[in-house]
Amino acid sequence: MAPLMRNRSPNNVPNELNVEYYRQRASAGLIISEATAITEQGQGYSNVPGIYTDEAVEGWQNVTRAVHEAGGKIFCQLQHVGRISHKSLQPFGDPPVAPSAIQAKAKSFVVYSDGTSDFIETSLPRHLKPFEISGIIEDYRRAAARTLEAGFDGVEIHAANGYLIDQFLRSSSNQRTDLYGGPLENRARFMFDIVGCISREIGPGRTAIRLSPVAPSNDVHDERPQALYNYIASQLSAYDLAYVHIVEGATGGDRTYQQGPEPFDYAEMRETYYRTDGSGAWMVNNGYDRPLAIEALEKERADLICFGRPFIANPDLVRRLRINAPLNALDQRTLFGGDAKGYTDYPVLGG
Ligand SMILES: Cc1cc2nc3c(=O)[nH]c(=O)nc-3n(C[C@H](O)[C@H](O)[C@H](O)COP(=O)(O)O)c2cc1C
pTM (2 decimals)? Predict the structure, then answer.
């Protein structure tokens, strides 16, 4: 089950409704939690859960216990949004932070005190000073340690969809001239610092990463995605990660979307992810249905298929796929924010 932000955790603390939602979906081989903020600064949307307070850790303990009792496994997707935020969500109303002070053409989601909500323009960010970068890497380490306290089976580092790590990776959002900017090796440094520190903290077998090599989400772009992501894959080989998770094409949109004239070659990227013991699990996502998933596995394009929207509408998706049963339709109006409607009230087969 893909990471899916649902904005139903007021005060950034997972609650009983969230417990029920994840419990219902525990038959997924692996649940990846919704993006979970490592710090208040890492938050870009209202009512998303964090993992930086004791209350949030306790809230997550209830979620992970319920999933484990129902026989499931759950990783925590750790998130720092970088510039994809609004001042009103930041500590002291400060501007959000980014590799460079470039505003994204992107929206944040806010819920007001009267309960109404809106998608609003993200704020102009300020660029991170070098000492702050090491501080954020330490924030990631601390958050990873807390995921174990919270009972998670591991961590998925969110390096996709134009959030902070991706803002460092892609040339359009990173104009730094220090060790964290310029050549692609430098732009990837922040990500590798985080992969290194989290895998040392919780063990590489509990550490995974999500990448979206060509996705334009949140206004990021790179001139040479193939070179960048082949390099990333080759360097990731040195870690013993649980899996590498690739969003193919534009997240939630066209699977064949490309940045630049050349179609992105995912097989080539995978080949550069070279693991001598053959254990490098490759997870793919975006627009998969039953036939496409079966084809990807049969052709050995991937080891794991990750489903997002189908899991929102079908808590018993695994059973339905197994017996080729029809799927419930997704209600687009209840994706972000709200209550049990469109969250925990989707019917199961025979239920
Ligand atoms: C409501 C919603 C929330 C999402 N939240 C996240 C998130 O928190 N983290 C993330 O990496 N991707 C997020 N995504 C992207 C999904 O994980 C997934 O990549 C996308 O839905 C495409 O997969 P699908 O076709 O199986 O739905 C979200 C998508 C949707 C529809």
Answer: 0.98
Any ligand 1 atom below 6 A from CB of 44: no
Per the residue annotation, which of 21, 22, 140, 163 is the catalytic one? 163
Ligand 1 atom having least distance to the Cα of 210: 11
Q: Give the domain extent around 105.
A: 10-334
For ligand 1, mutation pick of 1, 5, 25, 331 (most atoms within 8 Å of CB): 5
For β-strands 107-111 and 97-98, DSSP reports them as unpaired
Q: 343 catalytic, yes or no? A: no
pLDDT tens profile 4-57: 999 999 999 999 999 999 999 999 999 999 999 999 999 999 999 999 999 999
CATH number of the domain enclosing 45: 3.20.20.70
- Examine the pLDDT at 265 and tell me if it is beyond 90: yes
2 lines ligand 1 (CB under 6 A): yes
